[in-house]
Structures are given as C-alpha cells and as structure tokens.
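Batch manifest line 352
LIGAND: NAP
JOB: complex structure
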Amino acid sequence: MQTVRLGTTGLQVSRICLGMMTYGSSTWRPWVLDATASKPLVKRAVDLGINFFDTADMYSAGESEVLTGKFIKAFCKRDEVVVATKVYFPVGRGGGPNSQGLSRKRILHAVDDSLKRLGMDYIDLYQIHRFDTQTPIEETMDALDSVVRAGKVRYLGASSMWAWQFAKAQQVAKEQGGSRFVSMQNHYNLAYREEERDMIPLCQDQGVAVLPWSPLARGFLAGNRRNTDLPSPNAGASERPAGRAANSKKAKAAATSTSRALTDDIAQSYYYRPSDFQVVDNLTALAADKGVSNATLAYAWLLHKGVTAPIVGASKLPQLDQAAAALEVQLSAEDIARLELAYQPHPVLGHS
Ligand SMILES: NC(=O)c1ccc[n+]([C@@H]2O[C@H](COP(=O)([O-])OP(=O)(O)OC[C@H]3O[C@@H](n4cnc5c(N)ncnc54)[C@H](OP(=O)(O)O)[C@@H]3O)[C@@H](O)[C@H]2O)c1
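JOB STATUS: finished
ARTIFACT:
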C-alpha cells in the first residue's frame, strides 16, 4: 500500500482510507454492519496496509467510534495508524440545541466524548462535519485550536461546505495564530463533480489534502444499482426514465439487490438520473476493456485527479481488494476523457 503526505503535513496516510460509517449498528441505517460482521473487513483493510480510518461521532450514534477504537486496538499499533473523526451533527436522538454545532462548549464536550468512545487519548485528524452558520467562525477556530494545544487532537480537518466558508475559516485561524485545517473531506466521485469548480482548486492551491467521501457514489458506480431499487422520495420508479445501465443485459446480470441498494434513500436522491446511468455505462465499458471492476476504475480515476485518499465504504471482503487494486491502474488522458464524457452538472449535494 502506498502512503502519501496528508497535504503539507508530515503525516503519512495510506492512499486508501477506510470509511467506518458502514460499521456500527443497523438500528442507525439498515445497511450498517454490526461488530461481528465488521471485524473481518477491518482486519482485511489492515492486512492490505491501510493505516487511515475515518469515522464520525454521529455514525451509528457513537457505535462506529466504539468499533473503530476496538478494532484498531485489536489489529494495529496506535502510533502507526491515523484515526479521523468528526463533530457537528447531533449524536443520537434527544439532544438539545447545545448537543450539536460547533460552539466552544460543544467542541470541548464532543472531543472528550469521542475520545471515550474510541478508547484513545488523542485523535489524529479532528474534522468539522459541516460549517456552523450559528456560531462565529472565530469561536469555532479558537476552540479547535485549544483541543490541539491540549494534546487531544493532532491535526484539524473540515468536510463539505462552500469554498468561501473554508477560505474564511482558514483566514481566521491564520489571524488568530492558531491551527488551520490540513484536509477537506468532500463529496467527489465520477457521478458528482461539482467540487471541481471551486473547492478542489482551492485545496490544491493551498496544499490542503482532498479526501473524497462516497467515492463510488454510495455504491451507484459499481454498476449493480437499478432505478427500481427503492421508491424515489420525489417520483415513482415508473416515472423515472430508465438509464441504459439499468436496462442493459449486462447490468441486469450484474444486478444484486444489496441491503444498501434497497434501503439507502440518500443514494437514490443524489444520483440515479439518466445521465448518471450513462456515466456508469461508460465506466462499465472501460472497466471491461481494462479487465478491472467498476469500483477499481472509479477509485483509479479519483487517484488520477490528484486526491490524497478516497474514503472507501466496504461491506464485503473483495470490495477492499478491489479498492487496493486501484493503485495499480494507469489511466491515459483519453481514458479519463472517456470516463468524464457523459457527466451532467448536478445541484449541490451534501451540504447547503
Ligand atoms: N463527510 C461526510 O459528510 C461523509 C458523507 C458520507 C460518507 N462519508 C465517509 O465516506 C465513507 C464512504 O462513504 P460511502 O460508504 O458512501 O462510500 P462509497 O464507496 O461511495 O459506497 C460504498 C458502497 O459501495 C459498494 N461497494 C464498495 N465497493 C464495491 C465493489 N468493489 N463492488 C461493488 N460495490 C462496492 C458497497 O455497497 P453494497 O453494500 O451495496 O455492496 C458499499 O457499501 C464513509 O464510511 C464515511 O467515512 C463522509
């Protein structure tokens, strides 16, 4: 497994990051795996050389952090792995207005709660899950700097927001003489490329690591999703034009109704447009030419676009091998153009 510097820091992370949102409790999302089912997947990731793990306090209402801590303790040396978690959204139900967002009070509580659940005495990368418009950014950046200075956090990162908000936060941190964000975890994949407009050029200019979430568009790019997987929140299945990938003989043969395909309504609301299915068709065709899976090729495309490490979600062991295989795939400018050809702009998805 190759490693790479996290942005301009001295920290080395594997070029594949394991997303821990898939592991926790199915009471949070029906497709989430429990501890017993998750353990072999995390072990395989470690055996493949993955040293970078991404969770969040809100995933499975804290259970994802608990499992992340347990598995890392079981399989890794703490000083060799990079553990990332996040703060912003409420953890579970029933919290009041101070149990969410990025106030000083919230951040100071949340970091301690995450450390307890992880069973660790520091977090490598502490990320704000979104921008908090209800808290002055000066307060947020000062509170984040204080958890770094307290030794609870090594580096700060951010996740989906507008590029101007990210630039403002970085400027405020600079003016305060505090820690700045070293990474941006954003929504970026072959079916959602709006980040190419502002955020990615900003990160590249500033030496900020880019860590794309949902690199397979929540499984949509794998080629086994159909527009009949589950009823769309906005339209009945029969009202949506069928994409070619959904109807082609090959796609039908490959189609498997996984738990996530049948229950992940966020995927259905983000993707599943005719032009998105066309993107999958082109991906499937080039993957066949190259003798790799759609997933491997979709990750390889991201790695060729200058990202630091895609954050992969894996629910089955071979999916991890197919992620690692992406590091061996070489793409020409022509291949990349072919993969990008059918893309049609989307509304902003993942933050507002
Ligand atoms: N910052 C944020 O706001 C944010 C938002 C979302 C996610 N994330 C992070 O990003 C991570 C990944 O997100 P994600 O799970 O949505 O990522 P993803 O990689 O886009 O989707 C993962 C799904 O793709 C399918 N898949 C994976 N490899 C495959 C393969 N080789 N062949 C066929 N299907 C394959 C699996 O679906 P099946 O189970 O159906 O097989 C799997 O559950 C999360 O764990 C989390 O850490 C962050």
